[in-house]
Write a structure and sequence with these properties.
Elements: E1 7-9, H1 10-15, H2 21-54, H3 63-87, H4 89-107, H5 113-141, H6 147-176, H7 179-199, H8 204-209, H9 214-224, E2 235-237, H10 241-244, H11 249-252, H12 259-289, H13 294-322, H14 324-343, H15 349-377, H16 380-410, H17 415-421, H18 423-438
Parallel strand pairs: 1-2
Length: 458
Amino acid sequence: MNVTTERIDVQNVIDGNPISRLQMRVILLCFLVVFLDGYDTAVIGFVAPALAKAWSVPPPALKPLLSAALFGLAAGALAAGPLADRIGRKVVLVISVALFGGLTLLSAFATDLTQLTILRFLTGLGLGAAMPNATTLTAEYCPARHRSFLVTVMFCGFTLGSAGGGFLGGFLIPAYGWQSAFWVGGLAPLALAAALITLLPESVQFLVVRRGGGMRVAGILRRLAPGRAVTGDAVFVTPDLGAAQARSSLGSLFQNGLAAGTACLWLTYFMGLLVIFLLRSWLPTLVTGAGLSLERAAMLGGAFELGGTVGALLVAWCMDRFGAHRAIALSYLLGAVTVCVVAYLVAAPLLLAPAIFMAGFFLSGSQTSLSPLAAAFYPTHARATGVAWMLGMGRFGGILGALSGGVLLGLGWDFQAILTALAVPALGAAAAIWFKGRWRGREIGGGQQTAGLQLGHG
């Protein structure tokens, strides 16, 4: 008697069932990861004015400190993506969270600028490795009909964490000293890393592509679709299983029509982070130099990050309804306009806060939306690499932004001149992502079939 082995497409199981408790747990845990990632990335910008005062350091001398973590972020992202495509998203994610938590905690004990700069670089390695793996893991557990929105909701943890750095820093630093911000940023990730070990599942798509064991895959699918009987004897597949056996993950970023889209994603993320990290690193220093208090400066930094959270949700909603590329390009364009408006409101404190909120709304909102776009663009065997290398290459824009703030201050540029100049890279980001949407090669959700996940048209 012939026995037919059941063939199960795991993506169809994810797409064809309601969102399960397991999927909600993955989204929540990854949200917490990027929340703490955002806090620990942004905290140095809020600590910097207090450090300059405590250690008698002029603001331009803080350039190496403010950019050190960004070099680590780039290196961590570039290394972690291919590693996660080889050994798994979960393993790399747990290690990276423990790494940035432990090193942030050690930063509270730094006694001079050199020590803190070295610790911030090492912290950046963990920060850079965590974000692309949290993004990839979330995308691979989300059904196509909700993927863009749910990945963006998860990624909003980063902007909320960054905003928390501003609001919490405005309370903690004046009362308990700059070290208190690092205590919070170190202990919380260490606790989360311990929880991830037992609570976070590995990507089921990764397990299929890397032949991770039928019983393990079947166990996860039974939790994703409780009403379906799944055994370990079934043959599990993904839409891009054949491609996964043939190419390295890094080389895949430039094959089968992906090269132009990869270049556009890198350029867009580079330009966007140049603007965002200059603002994130130097906004508190710029506004205190313009005459506002340290507490007010921290709150304005928090308003920028909070605006990014709200903006990301709206951009994600627009991506599913009006086209992913059109929505993101328009948001960058409006961000360029808004940052010019902010430049001329330093003398109007009542208008400055809402204007900075709107700058974050458009700039950080569009930047956050690039992650679900990239996660959907690449096939499973190269997805972590594709997302990580977009983030990693973009970090060099963040480095340039953090360094150029100090350079421009040293050259005598004021608040108004620096912010007006930021409209140029914001317009460049809008143009690059618009071009990707028009490219007739590997198109998300367009007429051609891709090996990646799906998002809205345009």
